[in-house]
Design goal:
The chain has 269 residues and is α/β, with parallel strands linked by helices. It has 3 domains: 4-113, 3-Layer(aba) Sandwich (Cobalt-precorrin-4 Transmethylase, domain 1); 116-216, 2-Layer Sandwich (Methyltransferase, Cobalt-precorrin-4 Transmethylase, Domain 2); 230-265. Helix content is 37%, strand content 18%. It has helices spanning 20-28, 37-46, 61-73, 94-102, 115-123, 140-148, 166-177, 230-239, 244-255, 259-265, and strands spanning 4-8, 31-34, 53-55, 78-80, 106-110, 130-134, 156-161, 181-186, 194-199, 212-216. The strands form 2 sheets. It has a 5-stranded parallel β-sheet with strand order 3-2-4-1-5, sandwiched between helices. A 5-stranded mixed β-sheet has the order 6-7-10-8-9, with helices on one face. Strand 2 (31-34), helix 2 (37-46) and strand 3 form a beta-alpha-beta unit. The longest helix is centred in the N-terminal third of the chain and has 13 residues, at 61-73. The chain is elongated and about 75 Å long.
Length: 269
């Protein structure tokens, strides 16, 4: 009889943010699959959990999934955890879940904290839903492709950002989305937890330390500019807070015109 795969949420900072059920599950399984065995051992030792660990990380996720599915089919019960938060949410796990289920293995979840939900709660943003994009791709062309699909999305956009990428990512978001409000949330549940509300154009949160969640304001609701001249269209956007450069870029996009044509019409602004 096949074993069960447990997807177990673990604390995102404060070790006390683990559930009773998560501890019970981790104590009961035959194997715990984790990203970094040394990192996870700190949490497990704190709760007297001694199940053997196997390494399961992004670079060898498919190979690791095949090995774990074999163990599950042999009757082993396995818990999957990550360094912090929920597996498969911008962390390894989705491939294993899919392959286990396709192999007839029972997959169940033991929910825990996630940085995205915690950051949204801390931000105080009032307008409802959001679009979670996790970590942006490393290559610029891939980043551009992701954001090009989101430029007109009215929902807030939520990103995970490493500290060494923070300022370059904020600059990139500004270049692609224009100036928008942004909430930078760091060190969630830790001693130096902090939320900074600023804008992409004036982004400054001091020294970048710890992991960040960036919550970027959604696209403004489109207005009908059909009765406006090109220069009036540009001025309207500038009055709404866009720089002249960003306003020209948006008008060119909205009207499917070359940017230089719009620029010539807006010289006197």
């Amino acid at each position: 009889m096949a074993g069960t795969l447990y997807i177990v949420g673990t604390p995102i900072g404060n070790l006390k943010d683990i559930t009773y059920r998560a501890v019970e599950t981790l104590k009961s399984v035959d194997i715990i699959a984790c990203e970094d065995t040394r990192h996870s051992r700190t949490l497990l030792d704190a709760y007297g959990i001694s199940a053997p660990l196997v390494s399961y990380y992004k670079q060898k996720e498919r190979e690791g999934s095949e090995q774990l599915v074999k163990k599950l089919l042999d009757g082993k019960n396995i818990a999957l955890i990550t360094d912090a938060g929920m597996p498969a949410i911008s962390d390894p796990g989705a491939i294993l879940v899919s392959e286990a289920r396709n192999s007839g293995v029972t997959v169940t979840v033991v929910p825990g904290p996630t940085a995205v939900a915690s950051a949204m709660a801390l931000s105080g943003y009032l307008d409802g839903g959001f679009t979670f994009l996790g970590f942006l791709p490393e290559k610029r062309k891939d980043k551009v492709a992701v954001l090009s699909e989101q430029k007109n999305n009215p929902l807030v956009l939520v990103f995970y950002v490493s500290p060494h990428d923070l300022y370059s990512q904020a600059e990139f978001l500004y270049s692609e989305l224009g100036d928008r409000k942004v909430w930078a949330v760091k060190e969630i549940t830790k001693m130096f937890e902090r939320v900074t509300e600023t804008t992409l154009g004036a982004f400054d949160v001091g020294e970048a330390k710890g992991e960040y969640v960036l919550i970027v304001e959604g696209a403004p609701k489109e207005k009908d500019f059909s009765g406006l001249s090109i220069s009036e269209h540009v001025k309207n956007l500038m009055d709404g807070g866009l720089s002249k450069k960003d306003a020209i870029k948006k008008v060119a996009t909205d009207r499917n015109l070359p940017k230089n044509d719009v620029y010539q019409q807006a010289l006197d602004l």
